[in-house]
Amino acid sequence: MAPMKRPSKDADNAWGETMSIARIAERWRTSRRAVRHLLANGTLRFTQVEGSLRVPRAAVDAYERARRPK
Question: Which side of the chain, N or C, has fewer Cβ within a 10 Å radius?
Answer without folding.
Answer: C
